[in-house]
Structure formats: structure tokens, C-alpha cells
Write a structure and sequence with these properties.
The chain has 427 residues and is an alpha/beta fold. The chain is 49% helix and 12% strand. It folds into 2 domains: 220 residues, D-Maltodextrin-Binding Protein, domain 2; 197 residues, 3-Layer(aba) Sandwich (D-Maltodextrin-Binding Protein, domain 2). The chain has 19 helices and 14 strands. Strands 2-1-3-14-6 form a 5-stranded mixed beta sheet. Strands 12-7-13 form a 3-stranded antiparallel beta sheet. Strands 4-5 form a two-stranded antiparallel ribbon. The N and C termini lie far apart (63 Å).
Amino acid sequence: MNKLFTKEVSRVLLGIVLVFAMAPICAHAQNSGSLTVWSFTNELRDMINNYYKQAHSKVKVTFAMTSLTDQAYQKKLDPLLASGKKAPDVFALEAQIVRKYVESGQLLELTDVYMANRSKLMQYTVDVGTYNGRVYALSFQATPGAMFYRRSLAKKYLGTDDPKTVQTYFADINKFLDTAKLLKTKSNGVCVMVTSHGDLLAPYLSGRSSPWVVNGKIVIDPMMERYMDMAKTFTEANYHAHAWLWSDGWYAGMRGELKDYSGKDVEVFAYFLPTWGLDFVLKANAPATAGDWAMIPGPLPYSQGGTWLAAWKNTPNPAAAKEMIRYFTTDDDFMELYARSSGDLVSNQTVVDRIKGSYAEPFLGGQNHYAEFAEMAKNVNGKLFQGTDQEIEGLFVYAVNTFVYEGKTMKDALAQFTTEAEKLIKK
């Protein structure tokens, strides 16, 4: 059958499904008035146009989008919130900035929305939006991270590409390090574990027991010292490819096209990526490798990225604002339709449990990625998120680099980091 014809038929059928499926959703109270909604991607815009408006026809929605690049979104939003005038009624918040606003005192409380739906929401997504026992932001998605590995390389050096067996080689950090050495030895230095030690920062951050700031003081969790040791070991032993995140070399490794400084081929065994990394990173940049990937939890549970929704505390239409957030983050009917059409792992566990058995991802050799991610999400700790994370982690990465590349001792690098970070949190 012609692919274009098939795609068009699928689109029409989805439209028919939406018409009928939206009928019960419309039974919810129809709020009236208007809402101004801001986001940093077109994702929320499409959700409004394709779903929300059909269920809330009496609400006029004005949507605006601003990129996160160079903090443009924050620079546009912050002055309006500070002034208490003309801020958007509802706005999206990316994972790295959500706690800044949750802790700001400028958001409409959503605890009642959470309490009415708490039995079905993934806890880590709620914890991220909770401050002093009150909920101020909720997410429609969960973004746990996985370790994606090349099946062909696993067969070549580990003797199997079966995810359950491969996971035994990466069950904890010590086994992860042992396997990095094994790959280098068996491949005569051709196969590296990852492209850079930076690939592993998110898992180590999520592996902490303590957040960065406790009682106004910087806390360096032992896991971050272990990360520094790992970064130095991986660099000195050439367990990584010295190709940094988002660089040309990082992408080349996905395609099996990476070469070292002397022009020799380099095989990259794995990438650490969250849910969205499958579609928007691996599939988008390495289509020719389809079928040669699989995913496992790896040594540490973690999450990366994600979008939370919040409302301005002075919104002139708080009922409509809350209803929009309730609809996008808790409504079973909407979330199932959205999950099935987008493939996104939604934060509604009831919906996830209902649909997770129906997936088989060809890019991953038929593996059910949805069910795998659903299990991984259960182990993510959302209580580690804080409003100063982005800036503090920038200082930490600098400290790591002085330790790995400039000869500073770990003690001196961390002392400098602590001094700078404590200045930051006292501003």
C-alpha cells in the first residue's frame, strides 16, 4: 500500500476517534472566559489545538511561544511575574527551571488538583512541583532515562544482545566501570563505553541521596565525588571518545561514523538518554542504525528534561487555569489519546498501565520501550530538584574539568566549587 495513502488514512481515522472519544471528556465543567498560555515549544500549542479546544469550547486561548535559548523565555516571563501585571495565566516550565518558579511564591496553588488525582499520578513528577508540602506545578509527561546500547557491539564483545543479560554487566557503578575496561580490552581500544564523561552526569546527579542545598549550605553528596573519580578514570583510560554532548562527534558516534584524532574508527557502545532521546536524538540522527539498538536501566535510575505546567497566582481566571492544568496532567481520556498519538510516556500511571503492553519499537529491535520506561520512572527521585540546580551544576561541571584536565586535586576543586556555590545561593 502507498505509504502516503496509509498515513492519510491513519490521520483521518484518528480524527474520527477523537470526535467520539472527546464526547465524555466534554462532560467536565466548561469554564468560560479567556486564558493566555506560554510555552517554549509547540508541543503545548498542539495539545491545545488538537484536544483542549474540543473539550473546552467556551474558553478563548491565546498562545505564545518563546525559545529557552539564552534564557529568552525566563527573561520574558520574570519581569511580568515580578510586576504582578499581565503575566500569562498558564505557562510551561522545563525541568531545569521549574523549581525556580515553584519556590518563587508567584504560582497558583494546585494542591486541590493533585489531591483529587493523587492515586494515579507518578510520584516523582508531583514531587518536582511540590514545595513546603504544597503543589504548584504538575507535568503531563514522565522522562526517565535509559542506557541505549548497540546490539551488534553487545554481541561482539559481551556475547549477547539480550537486554536482561546485558543489564547484568551494568547493574551498578562498579560493574559499569568493569565493563568499560572489558570493552576496551576485548576491542583492542576500538570500542568505548560512551562519547564523554559528560554523558553520565545526569545519572550520577539522580543517584544522590541529598540535594545541593540543605539548610542554606552546599552539600556535596558522595555520589558527586564518585562522578569526579569516574570522569578522571574514563578520561585517562580512554574509556570515552572525548566527543562532547551535542557535538558533531557525539552524533557521529550514534551513526557508527566516529573517528579519533588519528583518523581511526571508534565504536561507541552506549548513550544515556531520556524518553525523548529515542525519537528526537537517536532516530532523528542515526536512522540507518534502526534495529541495532536496545535499552536497559543501566547503573542508576535517572530522569532528564520534561515539561511542567503552572499558573500565575494573580490570574483573573483561576478556575479555567486550574481546569486546563487538570485536563492536561490528569484526565484519563485525554492522556490516553495523547499517549497513543504521540508515543509520549504520560505521568498518569492508570493510563500507562492500560496501554504499556501494546508497544514494540522497531528501532529497538522490537523491544517494548514504553513498558521499560514505565518501570524506570518508578525509581526516579523527584525530591532532589531545587531552584538553584542549573547554576550550581554549571559551577560543578567547571570544578570537574579543573580536576580532570588541569591537575587540581579533588579537594581543591570542590573547595573552590563550594565557595562559589555558597555565594550564589546567598544572593
